[in-house]
Amino acid sequence: MNGFGAPGDTPRVWFGSVAWEPVGRVWVAAGEKGIMRVSLGGDEQSFRSLFEDVAAVPAESMPRGGGGCEEALEQLQEYFAGERRQFPLALDTGVTSRFASRVIAELREVAFGELVTYGELAKHCGRPRAARAVGRVLAANPLPVFIPCHRVVAKSGPGGFGPGLEVKRALLRLEGRHLPG
Fold it and tell me: Given the DSSP bridges, would you call strands 12-20 and 152-153 parallel, antiparallel or unpaired?
């Protein structure tokens, strides 16, 4: 078994989206192990193209919401409406290094509305001089919002954010914070 059905079956992911004004659509994909991808913005075709080697199936067409995708979409809607602060979901980050796993675990502990610097996060991971390495892990984060890299800032300014600083600002405003710098 390959985890996706009978031997030789094409692996599949379930996907769906919710509306969020600053970006248009927020796209979510789930596999057998949990939520595996979030894209803030873009269209369905672009999102589906991320999964060329798998069958991408709309979550609403599957029983039980397609691998947790429907639940993730509901939780995102609640978050965007100011009704949710945590995401108790199974996440499939695809991370293989011990350091990256530690960064993600520590970041998931940063509370709603709190900010942490790259250096502080590195210290929490036991590597106080690894602020740039933390930044590289966050730049590869496949699950923004669920793994809240928008809560990480530079010591002297906003830091980066793949979907753009305006999206980072919008997420932090949802959490009652304003981006420094």
Answer: unpaired
User: Across 21-175, where does the E strand assignment appear?
Assistant: 24-31, 34-40, 55-58, 116-117, 152-153
User: pLDDT tens digits for 14-56?
Assistant: 899 999 999 999 999 998 889 999 999 999 999 999 888 787 7
Q: How many angstroms separate the Cα of 159 from the Cα of each of 10, 26, 123?
A: 39, 22, 17
Amino acid at 82: G
77: left (phi over 0), alpha (psi -120 to 50) or beta: alpha
- Report how far residue 117's alpha carbon sits from residue 134's, in angstroms, rounded to the nearest whole number: 10
Model's pTM, two decimal places?
0.88
> Does residue 36 contact residue 94 with C-beta atoms inside 8 Å?
yes
By annotation, the residues acting in catalysis are 149
Distance (Å, rounded) from C-alpha 83 to C-alpha 77?
A: 9
State the Cα–Cα distance between residues 15 and 29, nearest whole angstrom.
4
Asked if residue 178 lies in contact with residue 172, where contact means CB atoms within 8 angstroms, the answer is yes
